[in-house]
Specification:
Strand content: 15-25%
CATH superfamily of one domain: Ribonuclease Inhibitor
CATH architecture of one domain: Alpha-Beta Horseshoe
Structural class: alpha/beta
CATH topology of one domain: Leucine-rich repeat, LRR (right-handed beta-alpha superhelix)
Distance between the termini: 103 Å
Largest sheet: 23 strands, mixed
Number of helices: 8
Helix content: 10-25%
Radius of gyration: 33 Å
Bound molecules: 2-acetamido-2-deoxy-beta-D-glucopyranose
CATH class of one domain: Alpha Beta
């Protein structure tokens, strides 16, 4: 009997249980059918004839395990443009999650607000990435709503009490709209809010001290608004805060010391404001990421600021910090940016050598002195090393060759002497090498030509002598070669046909005829051979270099007739006594390209390549290297 009963239950649960319990109530089923009809979209197939169980429709979620009621509807990215279906959704009383993000909805109908407001179980509303316009509607009811995402819309106006009725609100996202007025602080009477995302609006005024009434806040993002004044000290009372982002506003005053009291704070960004005064000691104690760049902070870097155990990224660049770089450095550091300050003294060598994870080190545009420490060779993860525009002296240490992951090496505008070490050729990933404007001497080591990933080589403004490595044509990534203002001489070897941005051999000791191999550089935009002793005629193939926009031949010993160039080519032939102008002028042809003021083709390719190089590294580094590139480019144009 027992065995029979067991068998009975066994087969019952297998064969009948799903059939009986996996059915939606007929009411919900009809609503879902009605909903499917009202949607009018082609790319979701909610078809009761093809799939009789709406719980199995794409984007529909039912309660488990019984599947007896719909709890989730996700209609993300299905090209919805009419909001008419929205009130219908509110007939599903069991609904917990509604995601209509990434569509073309223009409004939230009042019928939706009144009907869905009654659904106590509704926890999440996602209207992000739509085209909602007008002002924020008043939310009445919605007693269970925890997540409200209205980001990436076209909402405007000030915010007052519209959201104050949301007693359960834990996460509010209003970023990327056009909201104005002051930072809203009426965000749910019960103050259970945890995440407040207001970035990229037009909020203005001060940070209201009322905000600290929301004791459960873990995330505040006020970035890219027009918030001014100083940050209230009381912010330190938000003892659960993990992320505080105040970037790109008009905030001033000092960075509040009270932040050091928040033990949970892991990320603090206050970059691009007008903060001044000294950096308070201890604020990085618990942090992983600190960004205070682009402010007017002064004084020296607190000795303990860079040492906390968990600290991974620090950006203090573009401030007015002085004194030396603290010797205590966290071994977790991945990125350290201290550029464009007034830091002096030497690099804390011993500490740097321990930074095995350091990937980006940017100390440019300070007044740092001493040697480029050989210990940098121990920073095996380095991908970017920028020590440009300082007062580093001595020679380039051969230990740099150990940096096998290095992609960008910028040491320009220092006081470096001695020869370029042959070990430089070991940095096989190098794509940008800039050691211009130093006092390096000796010849260019032929081994540099093995740097097959090098895009940009800038050795300009040194005392380099001897000839250009014969094998240079094999550098098949090279797009820019700057060798101007050295003492180079001898034969000019065949150049890489990849050269596009510029070939600059100006102000050296080259002589003889302009080499015919230049005819192969059909992608080259700028060629500068000025201030040498080139003689003979200007080759006619220059006229066939279709990408050429600037040809600088001034101050040589060229002779004969100047060939004709299209009107889009800037040609400077001054200072060549033997040159004569052509006897008759041809009508100017029209430029094959549109206005050159825009970014040239080569630049775009170059930027794309650099972008690819840094895809892993995040965009800050990219932005910085591009900025650097632009500056170099500007400088070069000025030099011309
Ligand atoms: C409930 O629906 C899900 C799909 O939404 C399905 O994977 C599951 O098997 C269903 N459960 C029952 C008991 O029907
Ligand atoms: C579904 O639509 C029909 C006709 O349009 C209507 O009569 C019915 O009340 C609707 N049912 C639900 C549950 O919305
Ligand atoms: C359905 O969408 C098409 C275009 O996708 C539109 O022309 C038509 O008017 C819409 N119908 C309804 C009832 O909204
Ligand atoms: C829906 O269709 C639009 C174009 O009609 C398309 O861009 C989008 O990728 C589709 N969405 C999904 C989820 O397939
Ligand atoms: C809303 O949807 C967007 C895009 O689909 C997604 O990135 C975002 O995380 C969602 N918001 C919430 C609160 O789930
Ligand atoms: C955004 O809203 C403004 C009015 O507030 C309107 O002029 C503008 O056309 C809207 N933009 C879009 C893309 O709908
Ligand atoms: C809006 O912010 C919330 C809270 O930080 C987040 O969960 C959500 O993913 C954000 N939405 C988008 C579209 O990024
Ligand atoms: C904060 O969260 C806790 C639990 O996470 C909750 O008990 C409390 O009511 C919330 N609100 C405030 C204001 O502390
Ligand atoms: C920033 O604040 C200063 C005063 O602190 C004010 O003079 C200036 O106009 C503000 N700038 C912007 C863009 O609002
Ligand atoms: C940090 O917290 C302690 C104890 O709560 C308090 O006495 C002190 O004033 C706080 N420090 C700052 C700078 O707010
Ligand atoms: C740093 O600058 C401050 C003023 O901002 C000045 O008082 C101090 O003497 C400077 N310290 C050093 C080491 O130059
Ligand atoms: C160098 O730093 C100074 C401030 O110390 C700044 O004004 C200047 O713009 C910076 N130069 C470059 C090229 O970044």
């Amino acid at each position: 009997m027992a065995r029979y009963l067991f068998f009975f239950f066994f087969s019952f649960s297998f064969s009948f249980y799903p059939m009986i319990l996996s059915e939606l109530s007929s009411n919900q089923k009809t609503t879902m059918i009605n909903l499917s009809k009202s949607l009018n979209v082609t790319n979701i197939s909610w078809d009761i004839n093809k799939e009789p169980n709406p719980c199995l429709w794409k984007g529909v979620g039912c309660n488990s395990p019984s599947n007896s009621s719909v709890i989730q509807i996700s209609l993300s990215w299905v090209s919805l443009s009419s909001s008419d279906f929205l009130p219908l959704v509110c007939q599903i009383e069991s609904l917990q999650i509604l995601d209509v993000s990434d569509n073309h909805l223009r409004k939230i109908p009042s019928g939706f607000l009144s009907d869905c407001g009654k659904l106590d179980g509704l926890r999440l509303l996602n209207f992000s990435y739509n085209n909602l316009g007008g002002s924020l509607p008043v939310f009445v009811g919605f007693a269970g709503l925890e997540f409200l995402d209205l980001s990436h819309n076209n909402l405007s106006g000030a915010i007052d009490l519209e959201l104050d009725g949301l007693v359960g609100l834990k996460s509010l996202n209003l970023s990327l709209n056009h909201f104005t007025g002051s930072v809203p602080t009426r965000l749910g009477k019960s103050k259970v809010l945890k995440e407040l995302q207001l970035s990229m609006n037009k909020f203005h005024g001060i940070i209201p001290v009322d905000i600290v009434g929301y004791r459960n806040l873990t995330l505040i993002d006020f970035s890219v608004n027009n918030i001014y004044g100083s940050v209230p000290d009381e912010i330190g009372e938000l003892s659960k805060l993990e992320v505080l982002i105040l970037s790109s506003n008009n905030l001033s005053g000092e960075i509040p010391q009270s932040l050091s009291n928040i033990t949970s704070l892991t990320r603090f960004a206050a970059n691009s404001n007008k903060f001044n005064g000294p950096i308070p000691a201890g604020i990085a104690k618990h942090l992983r990421n600190l960004d205070l760049s682009y402010n007017t902070l002064s004084g020296s870097i607190p000795s303990d600021l860079l040492s906390p155990l968990n600290l991974q990224t620090v950006d203090l660049s573009n401030n007015r910090l002085n004194g030396s770089i603290p010797a205590a450095l966290s071994q977790s550091l991945v990125r350290l940016r201290l550029g464009s300050n007034s830091l002096d003294d030497v690099i804390p060598t011993a500490a740097i050598a321990e930074l095995k994870r350091l990937t980006y080190l940017e100390l440019e545009n300070n007044t740092l002195t001493g040697l480029i420490s050989p210990e940098l060779g121990y920073c095996q993860s380095l991908a970017l090393l920028n020590l440009a525009q300082n007062q580093f002296s001595g020679s380039l240490p051969m230990e740099l060759g150990k940096l096998s992951h290095l992609q960008v090496l910028k040491l320009e505008l220092n006081l470096l002497t001695g020869q370029i070490p042959i070990q430089i050729a070991q940095m096989s990933k190098l794509s940008i090498l800039n050691i211009s404007w130093n006092s390096l001497n000796g010849s260019i080591p032929p081994s540099v030509t093995s740097l097959k990933n090098l895009i940009n080589m800038n050795l300009q403004g040194n005392n380099l002598s001897g000839s250009i490595p014969e094998n240079i044509g094999s550098m098949t990534s090279l797009m820019e070669l700057q060798l101007g203002e050295n003492q180079l001489s001898g034969d000019i070897p065949s150049m890489p046909i990849t050269l596009q941005i510029a070939l600059n051999l100006s102000s050296n000791l080259f002589e003889g005829h302009i080499p015919g191999t230049l005819a192969k550089l059909t992608g080259l935009e700028i060629l500068d051979l000025s201030n040498n002793k080139f003689s003979g005629e200007i080759p006619t193939f220059f006229g066939k270099l279709g990408a050429l926009t600037q040809l600088i031949l001034s101050n040589n010993q060229l002779s004969g007739e100047i060939p004709k160039f299209g009107s889009w080519v800037f040609v400077n032939t001054s200072g060549n006594e033997g040159l004569t102008n052509p006897s008759h002028t041809e009508p100017p042809r029209t430029s094959p390209k549109s206005e050159k003021a825009k970014m040239s083709c080569a630049e775009i390719i170059f930027l794309a390549v650099v972008a690819a190089v840094f895809a892993v590294g995040g965009f800050t580094i990219l932005a910085i290297s591009l900025l650097g590139y632009k500056l170099v480019k500007k400088k070069k144009l000025i030099a011309l």
